[in-house]
Amino acid sequence: MKAIVCHEFSAVSDLVYEDIADPIAKPGEVVVDVAAAGVNFPDSLLVQGLYQLKPELPFIPGSEVAGTISAVGEGVPHLKVGMKVIGVCRLGGYAEKVSVPAMQVMPIPDSIPLDEAAGLVTAHATAHHALKQRAQLKAGETLLVTGAAGGTGLAAVQIAKLMGATVIAACSSDEKCELAKQNGADMCINYSNQDLKDAVKALTNNKGVDVAYECVGGDIFHACSRSMAWAGRLLVIGFAGGEIPKFPVNLALVKGYSVVGVFWGSFVAHQGQEFMENMKELITWYTQGKVKVHIDEAFALANAVDALDKVTSRAVKGKVVLKP
Known about the structure:
By secondary structure, the chain is of the alpha/beta class. The protein has 10 helices and 15 strands.
């Protein structure tokens, strides 16, 4: 089969599109024929050796796929060949086939297109976990979402509205602000031409926000850290802007708010049952039309480098997927 292989930790441009052996369904696993694989910002960090986890070389990046089961290993009574599924694989998704632990595979209804299903896992599942388990967001609270036109930002906007929050989106352009509003944001701040902290202060009558869903890092994080309400929760989602900020802990002391880390991969590993319950809820919301994956662009598997470049340049509105 064809796959995108990382042979050494280096630039994304060094990834190789090549033939490798097909995976085998070991006990407790299934093989999924990949129809689409989600492309995520951490994939590029993983390839460069800059992520929290460093896989053994060589490896195939890609943590979320959608497709059809083509083989079932021993000890997997609940999944069958031919089932349409979502798979959470951590590695191996940028390929024509991938073996996935059966407990990380979920059947999906035919009403969900496979390219959208591939984009439903990481972005929406991260936002869902962040707002539900980590922030414990309540109806009537105010949420600030940075990078709100990206995949996980749009997901946070949609899910927060379902949970009854007032949503302030923060984006880098008017076009992205419009997309965030189309997905449910009540207000939007274009931080390219507005001071984020001052705008939040004005929109909240000086109170600040109860929860900040912060994806960008750098100066945007620092603005959020000064925009929190009493007893707020500042969620650390990622650093798409490239700079990991240093946090002045006196702010949390004086304003009585919490800084809460969100690492979805660890959540899946440590709280597998809650993860599956979250995914069932997400799929139900999707079939009810309450959440939606916005596909910005689909790339051929062979063009994975171009797909990753688009994601890392922060030019994406919604999700990018690869289609073998």
